[in-house]
Amino acid sequence: MGEFESVGEILEFAIAREEEANRLYMDLAVRAGNPAMRRVFEDFAEVELEHKAKLELEAMKEGIVVTPRERLAAFRIADYVADAESVPEMDYKDVLMFAIKKERISVRLYVDLAAIIEDAGAREMLLSLAEEEAGHKARFEIEYENAVLRGS
Question: Which of 37, 39, 100, 132 has the fewest CB atoms within 10 Å around its CB?
Answer without folding.
Answer: 39
